């Protein structure tokens, strides 16, 4: 297994690669000759179109040229929340730039590599160092200001469950969109309370707010229809 990174290598990421560089992506795939590529990269800046959309297209083109299976990780951000409940057949209707970039990435992947699996997922937690977990700790400790929204509803997924699903898809031949999210419907605030309880923090110290009042225009209730375990189960388990 070969993992790639942009700025900092990791335990399983020793190959430096900038997916915004189409030539570099093509050369990397041609040199390594992987059996499958799992594309989970995203821009540090959520509005980074060159990484989120163009980068995904570069990966798809390189995989198509080399005949490599592709599993592409997308997001529930491709939806506006107007329909609330989203099946795998739902067409993207993003209302902000990040969601639009992820929707564009899906379009490129499915056009260039029709055999690819496109995995739409939701809030990813688990292991203690996820973005939502880190934010909850920082808010409670006063290291950052802000709040967790009570009206942004999602189906959080455990990182291990998502990883298992990606590996299973990598070994198979599923083509098209697949929703991989948790079974439980929770607000970002409710998830923060679960994080606080699990990690020995004071749940009452988790600040709450409404997205509709603080950042109007954000998607609120977005629920991917799914089959995996929910946050109520995995947030009470040891990790």
SSE diagram, text form:
Layout (H helix, E strand, L loop, with lengths): L3 E2 L9 E2 L5 H11 L3 E4 L9 H18 L2 E7 L9 E2 L10 H16 L4 E5 L2 E2 L5 H11 L6 E2 L3 E2 L2 E2 H13 L4 E5 L5 E2 H11 L9 E2 L1 H4 L8 E2 L6 H4 L5
Parallel strand pairs: 1-2, 3-4, 4-6, 5-14, 6-11, 7-10, 8-13
Antiparallel strand pairs: 9-12
Kindly describe this structure:
The chain is built from 8 helices and 14 strands. 37% of the residues lie in helices and 17% in strands. α2 (49-66) links the parallel β3 (36-39) and β4 (69-75). The chain has a 4-stranded parallel sheet, with helices on both faces. Strands 1-2 form a two-stranded parallel sheet. The protein has a two-stranded parallel ribbon with strand order 5-14. It folds into 2 domains: 1-121, 3-Layer(aba) Sandwich (Rossmann fold), CATH 3.40.50.720; 123-239, Rossmann fold (3-Layer(aba) Sandwich). The longest helix is centred in the N-terminal third of the chain and has 18 residues, at 49-66. α1 packs parallel to α2. By secondary structure, it is of the alpha/beta class.
């Amino acid at each position: 297994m070969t993992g790639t990174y942009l700025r900092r290598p990791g335990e399983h990421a020793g190959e430096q690669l900038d997916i915004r560089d189409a030539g570099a992506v093509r050369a990397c795939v041609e040199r390594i000759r992987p059996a499958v590529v799992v594309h989970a990269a995203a821009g540090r800046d959520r509005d980074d179109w060159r990484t989120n959309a163009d980068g995904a297209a570069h990966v798809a083109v390189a995989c198509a040229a080399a005949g490599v299976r592709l599993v592409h990780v997308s997001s529930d951000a491709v939806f506006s929340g107007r329909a609330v409940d989203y099946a795998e057949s739902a067409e993207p209707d993003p209302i902000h730039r990040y969601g639009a970039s992820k929707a564009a990435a899906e379009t490129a992947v499915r056009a260039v590599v029709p055999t690819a699996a496109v995995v739409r997922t939701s809030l990813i937690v688990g292991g203690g160092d996820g973005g939502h977990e880190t934010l909850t700790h920082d808010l409670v400790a006063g290291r950052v200001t802000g709040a967790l929204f009570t009206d942004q509803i999602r189906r959080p997924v455990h990182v291990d469950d998502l990883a298992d699903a990606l590996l299973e898809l990598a070994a198979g031949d599923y083509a098209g969109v697949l929703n991989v999210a948790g079974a439980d419907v929770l607000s970002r605030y409710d998830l923060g309370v679960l994080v606080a309880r699990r990690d020995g923090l004071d749940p009452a110290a988790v600040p709450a707010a409404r997205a509709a009042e603080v950042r109007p225009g954000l998607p609120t209730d977005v629920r991917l229809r799914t089959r995996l375990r929910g946050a109520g189960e995995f947030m009470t388990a040891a990790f």
